[in-house]
Amino acid sequence: MTKIGKWPKIGNIVLSILLIVTLAAGCGQQQAEQEVKGTVKIGYINWQEDVAVTNLWKEILEEKGYKVELLNVDVAPLFVGLSKGDLDLFLDSWLPLTQQAYWEKYKDKLDDYGSWYQGEAKIGLVVPKYVSINSIDELNGQKSKFREQIIGIDPGAGIMKTTDKAVKDYALSYEISQGSEAAMLATLDKAYKDNKWLVVTGWSPHWMFSKYDLKYLTDPKKTYGVAEGLHILANKEFTQKLPSIASILKKFKLNDQQIGSLEGLISQGLAPQDAAKKWAADNKTLVNSWMN
Q1: Which pLDDT does position 108 carry in this prediction?
Q2: Tally of domains in the chain
Q3: Which residue among 167, 185, 216 closes a domain?
Q4: Strands 39-44 and 67-72
Q5: DSSP for residue 145
């Protein structure tokens, strides 16, 4: 009886050892998978749609087990970093016009995953609808009301280069004010509340068109070109290293309502990562469609 009674204890010990070994193997495999997935470095610019979609993909990829690092830079150093492999992805390249010069310079080292925005991405000069002029070529006739100033954003942005060209093409007696998107929006907000005239560099998609009653000035000379796409660019080596991410990013599409609702959460005060988390949870079916 004594000898027989020892067997259950020995059996339990063996089972415990097997369980520990199995769990250890499982943890090791999980850790290995985590290491294989690795780190994704995404560069972004402080534009509303770029901040929104960059944080959305940070949320999605981290849920899938990747480590995601975000780097906020201006356009020129972003393209340099992307071409050198210091950055893996840029989710908001305006092509074929706005960032054409950067694309032409670095395209041999980059992959274009296509445009994710299902709408008319465009740039131009924007005024409140209460402003009585409708065309860029009318600006000189009302320059005192605009204080001879176009409110711009960061100097490295493609839209600023195009606006420099517009000033020359239309012989505008205007100074282009450089700053940030946040500063431009603050100036717009104050002028709009005071019913004052102002002209800003603007683009779609952007939540400001839902908050304020705005219009684009027509562009007879087509300096600002036609509607563009918002393209995802990647370093070529990254595409080869993580083709699974390339595959899902190529399926990523948002329409005006979808990107507007994501941007709106941020403009209402949510931190970008919190907004991304909430939006992804509220739009699971759409997000899952990119994953399949």
Answers
A1: 98
A2: 2
A3: 216
A4: parallel
A5: T
> Is 3 inside any structural domain?
no
What one-character DSSP code corresponds to residue 86?
S
* Position 208 confidence tier, pLDDT thresholds 50, 70, 90: confident
In this structure, the strands spanning 199-204 and 122-128 are antiparallel
Q: Confirm whether 155 is domain-assigned.
A: yes
Average pLDDT score, the chain: 89
Phi, psi of 194 (to 5 degrees): -90, 5
Stated pTM of the model: 0.69
| Cα distance between residue 69 and residue 61, in whole Å | 11
Assign 43 to helix, strand or coil: strand
> Where does the pLDDT of residue 32 fall: very low under 50, low under 70, confident under 90, or very high at 90 and above?
very low
For residues 244 and 107, membership in a common domain is answered with yes
Say yes or no to pLDDT of 3 above 80: no
Residues 139 and 211 in one domain: yes
| Residue 194: DSSP 8-state | T
Domain hosting 185: range is 122-216
User: Residues 6 or more apart from 250 whose CB is under 8 A from it?
Assistant: 113, 114, 232
**d(Cα 46, Cα 224) in Å, to the nearest integer?**
21
Alpha carbons 52 and 201: distance in angstroms, whole number: 20
Residue 148 binned pLDDT confidence (cut-offs 50, 70, 90): very high
Residue 34: how many other CB atoms lie within 10 Å: 12
* Pair (62, 203) in one structural domain: no
Query: Can you list the pairs that 184-187 forms with residues at least 24 positions away whose Cβ atoms lie under 8 Å?
Result: 184/151, 184/152, 184/153, 187/151
Residue 147 gets the label, from left (phi > 0), alpha (psi -120 to 50) or beta, of left
- Angle, CA 69 vertex, CA 79 and CA 277 arms, to 5°: 115
- The DSSP symbol for 217 reads P
Amino acid at 118: Q
